[in-house]
Design goal:
By secondary structure, the chain is α+β, with helices and mostly antiparallel strands. The protein has four helices and eleven strands. Helices cover 24% and strands 30% of the residues.
Length: 209
């Protein structure tokens, strides 16, 4: 049985979370990570993924989600058709605070372990506005070059044609967009839709220690 778009988003979030942290996310973290309104909806998607053979669940335990062998088989099959690039171009820095101007940079970063998308690039994070999403200053974000994003996605947004920033995207109306920081001490950026250009959607975060 094929996955729905939403089920794939949930599955990809869980896989990325486990890859980055070494343990599975809670229902609350899944809801926040993919923009779901209720824990009941998370439970519905997890049940579907379990039924379709992509997840293994241990009930009555906290953080008891594991990726099933079917998920890894399909990942390997997909990589045969879309091999990940050995290196990803590092295009500059991105503000996780007030917007700053991005700049070209000839360096590259290796994301081959978990990058399956072909049209991707990397940015180094500056600022602390996304710290509650575990995106810290000095981290590198792996970005899919796309203009198609949905509410709750972490995006690279170009404001007024010159200032790039990293925020969660929310469409408030046909004419207005909210760029939401993940830092309770900071206010959202409200911007007219006509003054905003989406330059990409964050796929992963890379941190060096």
């Amino acid at each position: 049985m094929a996955l729905t778009r939403r089920q794939k988003e949930v599955l990809d979030f869980i896989a990325g979370f486990i890859s980055g942290k070494g343990y599975s996310p809670s229902f609350e973290e899944i809801a926040e990570g993919v923009g779901l309104a209720s824990i009941a909806t998370v439970h519905k998607h997890l049940t579907a993924l379990d039924t379709k053979g992509y997840l293994k669940r241990s009930f009555n335990q906290s953080r008891a989600l594991d990726l099933a062998p079917k998920y890894f088989r399909e990942m390997r099959q997909n990589q045969q058709f879309y091999p990940p690039p050995a290196e990803t171009p590092l295009l500059g820095t991105i503000a996780a605070g007030q917007p700053i101007e991005s700049y070209p940079n000839p360096e590259t970063l290796s994301f081959s372990d978990y990058s399956g998308a072909k049209d991707v690039y990397a940015l180094e994070v500056r600022g602390e506005s996304m710290i509650e999403d575990h995106i810290m200053e000095g981290d590198y974000v792996l970005v899919e070059n796309t203009h198609q994003v949905g509410d709750g996605d972490i995006v690279v947004a170009l404001v007024n044609g010159s200032d790039s920033t990293l925020k969660r995207y929310y469409r408030e109306s046909d004419s207005r967009v909210r760029l939401q920081p993940a830092n309770a001490a900071m206010e959202p950026i409200m911007v007219a839709a006509k003054d905003l250009q989406i330059q990409g959607r964050v796929l992963a975060v890379h941190r060096r220690y």
